[in-house]
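QA checklist item 7 of 12: single-chain prediction sanity check.
[x] sequence parsed
[x] length recorded as 52
[x] structure emitted
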Amino acid sequence: MGLLREPKDVDFTGQSIPWNDKELLDFRKLMEVLKSKKQNQDFKIAIKKQKK
């Protein structure tokens, strides 16, 4: 597999727009919820393994 080259008239790089405070707060809340769900799931798996 070789290198992928950009066409001469197309630029695939982009500027990311910084998040405002509300978006950042929403994202942090979402991440907390997802992390807590994952920790609970990992805890349940660990308990099942101990019982075997």
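[x] summary fact logged: Residues 21-51 form the longest helix (31 residues).
[ ] second reviewer sign-off
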